[in-house]
Amino acid sequence: MIPALVLKVVLFAAALLFVVLVARRARRRPNRSKSHPDRVRMPRIVGIVGWATFAAGALMSYAAFTSRADDVLGMQIGGVALVAGGLLFALMYHNWYVSSGPDELSYRTVLGAERTIRYADIADYRFRDHRGRRMLQVRSVTGERFAVDIAVHPVPDLLAHIAFHQAHGRWPVRGELRAAGR
Question: Which of 88, 133, 143, 144 has a CA positioned 20 to 30 A from the CA of residue 113?
Fold first, then answer.
């Protein structure tokens, strides 16, 4: 028989390896929408975790609400919380995307609101490192804000416009990057 401590260490190492491999795959192969290949969505693991959590919460809620035991309030609350959390993750995966087009950045929020920021309307942008990941924050002249991890969600057209802005001190006019042979 395997000692409990060895089993715990092996299971923890396996779970950690799984998380590292999933994160690595998400960075190397962005999840593109099949119907709109220019849209980059959240990694598939977000949807899988959401539906698995929902299923576990539904099963737990069913067991808790049909039980005849006296002390099941904690299990009922936990089951409902897992259902709500799973639905939130599934909703996030279903709704969110980012699309870097030739003249504008289009995205949809977690709650489903579609937004667009024209590159010429960008008032401020900032690159920063957040927990070892390269993040890009963009703010438009209308106050619209957008932040993205550029390793997981590539936005090549936006980065090309930012590089042009850094080199020339102005935003390119519509079609100028395409004419220059980008």
Answer: 133
